[in-house]
Specification:
Length: 252
């Protein structure tokens, strides 16, 4: 099973025939540079909270934990670029183009998204070496996916429990980006509601999941303050685009 299928265009199972194919740094791929909402696991929350708001996105009946990297589409308004992100690059993108898949009963399979790296900065690395072993670059991507696999089931359980206890509430974003009425709006995001005092639902949640849930919720609540950074970056990008010629706007 492939997690988060919407991230991938052309999934292919890794075989010995992939020896001639090459992979590149994550930022060489358009998806990594431009994706606004990136699915994550709870184990990443503590590091990602320093960069982005951590939210849940509700779409097609699914509630998925994500980071909101930008208020603008198309790679604009990103305050943290993939090349400079360090711990700010989510595991799903750190592992790209290796695909996040669930372990199978017949042994682990490696799947690759067969997409073009449209902005490579070097010659990349082969996926498989001549002796059939994974290259260092491919092994690093797979390690990121393994970390994701180890946490994704717990992330699903935490999310389901928060929703069933009605601890999630809508987080509607509606901002004016530039003069002339240009606005940006998000209606499908949710966050953990502010606790009441006392809050029996939250107490029960923490009793069930322990310190792991407490750390995660604390990181999530702190991360929401990063929305001001995203707003400044989006407004700066919008103003820059207004001053460009039509040709340059199309290039963006």
């Amino acid at each position: 099973m492939i997690y988060w299928k919407e991230l991938y265009e052309s999934p292919r199972r890794l075989t010995s025939n992939w020896g001639h194919c090459r992979i590149f740094a994550p930022e060489a791929y358009e998806l990594v540079r431009t994706l606004q909402l990136v699915p994550i696991v709870h184990a990443e929350a503590l590091s990602l909270a320093a960069y982005f708001p951590i939210v849940w996105r509700v779409r097609n009946g699914e509630t998925v934990l994500c980071v909101l990297r930008s208020l603008l589409a198309g790679g604009l308004g990103h305050p943290v670029k993939p090349t400079h992100a360090g711990d700010g690059l989510p595991l799903a993108l750190r592992g790209f183009p290796v695909i996040a898949t669930a372990p199978t009963t017949g042994g682990d399979e490696v799947w690759i998204d067969d997409v073009v790296a449209d902005q490579p900065t070097d010659i990349g690395a082969p996926i498989l070496m001549e002796d059939g072993r994974l290259s260092r670059g491919a092994a690093q991507r797979i390690q990121a996916v393994v970390k994701l696999r180890q946490a994704i089931d717990m992330t699903h359980r935490l999310t389901k429990a928060l929703a069933s206890r009605r601890l999630l509430e809508s987080w509607q974003l509606d901002f004016e980006l530039a003069s002339g009425g240009q606005r940006i709006r998000f209606d499908d995001l949710m966050v953990v509601r502010p606790p009441t005092s006392p809050d029996p639902d939250l107490i029960e949640h923490l009793r069930e999941f322990g310190i792991e849930a407490a750390t995660f919720i604390a990181a999530h609540r702190i991360s929401l303050f990063r929305i001001s950074i995203l707003l400044r970056a989006a407004r700066a990008a919008a103003m820059t685009k207004q001053t460009l010629s039509p040709e340059m706007k199309e290039a963006m």
